[in-house]
Amino acid sequence: MSYPEYEKKQNASDVVPGFISADEALSVTTQEHADRARELQLRHNNQYRTAAAIAIGAGDVAVKAEGSYWWDVKGVKHLDFIGSVGPGLLGLNNPFVVEKVKKYLDAHLLTMDPLMLHQTTAAFSHNMALITPYLPRTVICCGGAEANETLLKMVRLASYRTKKGRTRMLSTLNAFHGKTQATVNLGGKDKWRQWQGPELPGYSHVPYGDWRAAEEEMKKGDVIAFFCEPIQGEGGVNVPPEDYLPKMRELCTKYDVYFCLDEVQAGSCRTGYLWAHQYYGDKAKPDALTFAKAMSDSLVPVGGVLSSEELYMAAYGNEETAFFHTATYQDNQISGITALACLEFMIEADVPGTIRKNAPYFWDGLYRLKDKYPQIIKDVRGRGYMIGIEYGQNKAGEYYTVEVCRHMSVESHVCTMFTINNDAVCRIYPNYWATKEDFDWALDALDKACAYVLSTMG
Question: Where is the signal peptide (predicted)?
């Protein structure tokens, strides 16, 4: 059957005075509309986070977004060099991905039913197994924190069959793996565990990049899995020593520890490789990895886990445990078609190759500004389109970070983002569509911002 045109029996605003319809919410075309949206968000949602975003020029209403740009209600064009804090790597409203999602919706398929077959997630998982054959099992979920939570549960469950008696997860200081109860304990920042009560047992942390410290923990014989980011994102875009991930792979094999990589920020092509660990060739293959962000094109929530056959089957390989991790939205079809379309675009447009080709021009410009403003810019680091700029402090001990971000956004309309775990660092995440002119725009904005803070902050 097809739905008949519904009979409108009453206006929602007559029943609930002040009710805002879907059409009204989508019709933000004037400054008055934008001001109203801002006021409502401040009143009903996280007002402190919203106020902080507004203060640095990052909180506004976008009436249109395409490629590397978005436009506000005044018609001002903004350069998006943070990509919705990661997901927008393929460009805002990538037409290829949007068209596939529209086609899916027009097909009227069944999106949510955990017991049904899911043709879109099955196709995505099949393609992933072709591309990453050492991780042939896939679980689709709705974001990075959920993906890491899923993998934590998977390795704990598997350990009851493969590593009996082991109790600990090992991860790195300054790491960020999400803000659920388990992932803040897995993460290496005490800040996110404040006021939650006693810390969950079974989590230990070692310095990022220090494989010797990790080995000392593994020697104790109670470590189930080692988790780390190929490049720390929220921690300040920290790139480990060249031998770190290959050495950690060796140690995990030696001590029979699952080697798990959080590729939520660094993965999905951002560093110039489909997966950031592939920078090391075959030397850093994980037993499992988590993904999200850029595999969604910032359209709908997407996340997931890629796992080895051995790990997955140890966790879920019989009728007893097959239902130990299921959810209504797990393997849902709209996330599946979005991830499938993103992956198809990544391959057909050669997104990794494009990033490797175009990134050096921007990096060269950043290095020139570092030399020009040594007091302001202390370091430029990262890989590909995952870039962190570490700023210095003035004589009063104030970091230049937030004020540089604010000036770039408010005065030059270039959007970047400071990191949450490191007050000194700003992230710049260009997307696939960024042109030489866009890079020049961003470099000019950074130049002006550095000159401004030097003259005003000292």
Answer: none
